[in-house]
Design brief:
The complex is a heterodimer of chains A (about 200) and B (about 170). By secondary structure, chain A is mainly α. Chain A has seven helices and no strands. Chain A is globular. The chains are: A mainly alpha (about 200), B mainly alpha (about 170).
Chain lengths: ~200, ~170
């Protein structure tokens, strides 16, 4: 896997501030957060590569609970060790949780239902647009890699994405089962050569 | 009367046996309603408010904690959802052990491709029930976000204003 040149150690306080910014800007759900993390650490600061980022996300799928919390733990550890984990989590969660409580307290005072519904009807489709962009961002390193390897890899890659998307949307197969199934398919499609020759003459 | 230890353990359990932001809902729904520590309306309200408040949308649980047990409930919910993802450190340890097996790169590529389709599926689920104005908002948000010139919160704020004007 392609990694960034040197280990960056931004310090716990700096990490806390960056994650606070991510947490407080994360309106409208996970897509926003995933995109903001990419902007902060991959694009703006060059502390991780997109390959590392997608790799971390892959690992987070296998941990229980909110994937974004697991992702915060992994990135916090990479950039700041054990203190980095806790400062990142604190930055990501505590300010936004506090504001969430204040919003809820405020909303309980006023009649809100109608306005909330109208605002949500505007925000929800916008989060779909952000989610689409996240999907494209995560697909890009895979497509670039496959493109470099040649047409067969590219066909395999596009076919795999299409099949698993259909499996989730049309066949309604649970996401975790699709992930396990497609990861096994990945072994078959992308391990070259698939079967090692037992009597190899050239080693 | 809410028993704080049981209350915390229920939130911890829900997160431990879930994956992703909303899959802890059924467990909490069942457990809290059975003990009369929450009422049905708390759940709908938590999900809606969780969406318009900052942070990952899994933080809806914090709203639920706040609505049912005040700031203490919110704190319990926060700790309960923070602990289980630490098991990701175990996942990376396992990965480190198998990293150099020759089938692992293929495996990780498979997972990466499945991840792309999970994002497409979420996109599709959200956009599925939208009318033409929803599609327009979606495309505009996508276009603005793709240029990288406009902040994401600003895009969502504009969408909120459009929603308010169109649907109030």
């Amino acid at each position: 896997m392609h990694r960034t040149q040197q280990d960056h150690r931004p310090g716990a306080w700096r990490l806390f501030l960056i994650w606070t910014g991510i947490g407080l800007q994360s309106f409208g759900g996970g897509a926003t957060t995933i995109l903001l993390i990419q902007r902060e650490f991959v694009e703006k600061r060059d502390w991780m590569t997109m390959e590392e980022y997608t790799h971390y996300w892959n690992l987070c799928l296998f941990a229980p609970g909110i994937n974004l919390v697991a992702l915060t733990i992994l990135i916090g550890r990479k950039l700041g060790g054990i203190p980095g984990i806790f400062s990142s989590l604190a930055g990501m969660l505590i300010p936004s949780a506090t504001i969430t409580c204040l919003i809820v307290a405020g909303f309980q005072q006023i009649e809100h239902n109608h306005i909330t519904q109208a605002v949500l009807k505007g925000v929800v489709p916008a989060t779909a647009g952000v989610m689409l962009l996240v999907g494209i961002n995560f697909a890009r390193p895979q497509l670039t890699l496959a493109y470099k390897e040649g047409p067969l890899s590219l066909v395999f890659t596009i076919a795999t994405i299409s099949i698993s998307t259909l499996a989730i949307i049309v066949l309604q197969i649970p996401v975790f089962i699709v992930i396990v199934g497609v990861s096994l398919l990945g072994i078959v499609l992308f391990t070259r050569p698939l079967f090692k020759q037992r009597t190899s003459t050239d080693d | 009367m809410i028993d704080p230890i049981t209350y915390f353990l229920l939130f911890l359990k829900a997160s431990l046996f879930s994956s992703g932001g909303f899959s802890n809902l059924p467990s909490l729904h069942q457990d809290l309603l059975a003990r009369r520590w929450a009422v049905e309306a708390n759940f709908g309200e938590s999900l809606a408010l969780g969406q318009i408040s900052p942070g990952p949308n899994g933080l809806w649980v914090i709203v639920l904690g706040y609505l049912t047990y005040g700031y203490l409930g919110a704190a319990f919910a926060l700790v309960g959802l923070t602990l289980p993802p630490f098991l990701v450190l175990g996942v990376t340890a396992i990965y480190k052990r198998i990293e150099h097996q020759r089938w692992v790169p293929g495996l990780m590529r498979g997972i990466s491709l499945a991840v792309v389709s999970t994002f497409i599926a979420v996109f599709w689920t959200i956009i599925g029930g939208q009318d033409w104005s929803g599609w327009l908002i979606c495309l505009a948000a996508f276009g603005l976000a793709a240029t990288k010139r406009v902040n994401i919160p600003l895009i969502l704020a504009m969408a909120a204003v459009v929603g308010y004007l169109l649907y109030r």
